Amino acid sequence: MVGAVWGEGGLLGRDYDEGACKPDDGADRSHETRALLERHGHIVQEVEGGSDFGEDLYVSFVRNGRRTGDLIAVQVKGGLSFRRASGYAVSTKKHADDWRIINVPVVLCCL
What we know:
Blueprint: E1 2-7, E2 10-16, H1 26-39, E3 43-46, E4 57-63, E5 66-77, E6 83-84, E7 87-88, H2 96-101, E8 106-110
Parallel strand pairs: 5-8
Antiparallel strand pairs: 1-2, 3-4, 4-5, 6-7
């Protein structure tokens, strides 16, 4: 998995494990993303797959052991079908309307 965690001062850390994500392991990607954020002390709640409206995780950021009050939703995507020569490409058509009406930022995490 390739991942990065941002905080108040910018990039907090980067994890890389070439074998962590396979093209068909969507649930594992969400779990790995959760583990990455939790290793940096943040609070992560997973959304059950049957209730998927384009948010896989909700993240409450923590600084110095205290919640900051900042919250984001995370949509985790990965696998070979999303990779392009210049990075990643993910269609937002399916969830764009849902993302426009919620009152927290949605971050697309491509692995």
